[in-house]
Design a protein that fits this description.
Blueprint: H1 3-14, H2 24-33, H3 37-65, H4 68-85, H5 92-121, H6 126-155, H7 159-177, H8 185-189, H9 215-219, H10 222-238, H11 241-251, H12 256-284, H13 287-307, H14 315-340, H15 346-397, H16 406-419
Helix pairs in contact: 1-5, 1-6, 1-7, 3-5, 3-15, 4-5, 4-7, 5-15, 6-7, 6-12, 6-14, 10-15, 11-12, 11-15, 12-14, 13-14, 13-15, 14-15
């Protein structure tokens, strides 16, 4: 079996488990433990901010340890253990600990899978492979959601635990079955490969490895900072939009749960072809254009959500969600790899960027609720679309990708004029 086939299987199986129980957590705690929405929200928020603190250090761990297969297996085991611990859990501290363990595993998965992918296919093939990774990831989410939906009537809400547990075990098996010889640490970080020395298997320390760049140098790159700020603004607008849309449907006496489930499925289905398409376009059209397209889509989605009340037509808004999220999922790891290539700190940077942008996602629901209190439904959705315009401006006017932006082109033009 080809190593890229193992990558496909890993991404299918981890698609649903990265967020633990995700939206099913609140349902389980409410039914099994009679938890109030406020209590569920508190533990979810605390766990969310806890994982933000872990994201950067976990990326650094992946860079330093250099054993992505084993790290993927360990992450899946943590998700499995944390999720199964929720079955008997009722006390707040116990639920928080179990959920934090599962969330920590999910946080470790992204840099570990990225490192495994880079070490197998290399930098040149990474954009197209990242597109395939994301497509398989969304397929996995759809498979799990379908299994849970079909199994709930017969087995009750506990079916979510068994589906997640099965996928976690299959992900562990797929990771450990990946041929160790297919992965190269030098290929994963952009160091020159030496066949005589690059036979080290699965993270074995190689002699005479180049020195890694300092973390301060890597994280101080202005382009990386601009990218992180733009993604934070994007997530500030995007993170809470579907939740707010569900609340709007409740207020208009529409079957909110039914339509929200449809919207989630539509967005995931859209992300599959978009991820594949974005992966192939990353080299042909450039990373900057992909990010510009993703950021430009969000204000349009916000406007549709603001002024359209028919839930059928609102499916268009969630198709746009799938377009934007599908592009971002492919483009961000590719751009971070571009900006940090050869430094030995790619996963450190990726984890840090994810932590920073996660702040925007964590604040999005609060921001949308505040905007609703001030401006009503239409104003709330337009307010959520506004940060994406700021993100769009950042990417247009500043260099957030390796391709030359307006500032670079002007600087080059001034240099050329001075030379003549």
């Amino acid at each position: 079996m080809a190593p890229t086939t193992h990558l496909a299987l890993i991404n299918v199986f981890i698609g649903d488990i990265q967020g633990g129980l995700g939206p099913f957590l609140g349902t389980w705690l409410a039914e099994a433990g009679s938890w109030s929405p406020a209590r569920v929200g508190l533990v979810t928020t605390l766990v969310g901010f806890g994982t933000l603190l872990l994201s950067g250090p976990f990326g650094a761990l992946v860079d330093r340890v250099g054993r992505p297969r084993w790290l993927i297996a360990a992450a899946c085991a943590a998700i499995l253990a944390g999720t199964l611990l929720l079955l008997p859990a009722r006390a707040f501290a116990f639920v928080f600990t179990a959920q934090l363990l599962a969330a920590a595993g999910g946080t470790l998965l992204l840099p570990a899978v990225t490192a495994l992918t880079l070490g197998i296919v290399g930098k040149d093939r990474f954009p197209s492979q990242q597109g395939r990774n994301q497509a398989f990831n969304h397929v996995g989410i759809l498979i799990a959601a379908g299994a849970i939906t079909l199994g709930t009537a017969r087995f009750g809400p506990a079916i979510a635990f068994w589906v997640l547990g099965l996928m976690a075990m299959l992900a562990i098996a797929a990771a450990l079955a990946t041929p160790a010889s297919a992965w190269s640490q030098r290929r994963a970080v952009g160091w020159k490969e030496d066949e005589a020395k690059d036979g080290a298997k699965d993270g074995k320390k190689e002699e005479d490895a180049p020195q890694r760049a300092s973390i301060r140098t890597v994280l101080g790159d202005r382009r990386l900072l601009v990218l992180a700020c733009a993604l934070t603004l994007f997530n500030l607008g995007s993170g809470g939009m579907l939740s707010l849309l569900g609340q709007k449907l409740v207020a208009t006496a529409v079957s909110a749960t039914h339509w929200t489930a449809i919207y989630v499925m539509v967005a995931q289905l859209t992300m599959v072809p978009v991820a594949l398409f974005a992966g192939s376009l990353a080299d042909r059209r450039g990373r900057r254009k992909l990010l510009l397209a993703a950021f430009a889509v969000l204000p349009v989605r916000a406007a549709l959500s603001a002024f359209v009340d028919d839930p059928t037509w609102l499916i268009l808004a969630e198709i746009l969600d799938g377009v934007a999220s599908g592009i971002v999922g492919v483009a961000v790891p590719v751009v971070v790899a571009d900006l940090t290539w050869g430094s030995g700190r790619t996963q450190t940077a990726l984890g840090t960027v994810n932590a920073v942008q996660g702040v925007g996602g964590a604040l999005s629901a609060w921001y949308g609720g505040l905007a609703f209190g001030l401006f009503g439904w239409a104003g709330a959705f337009l307010a959520l679309g506004a940060p994406a315009l700021a993100a769009l401006a950042l990417v247009i006017w500043f260099d957030a990708t390796p391709e030359p932006g307006r500032r670079s082109r002007r600087r080059q033009a001034r240099t050329a004029q001075a030379a003549t």
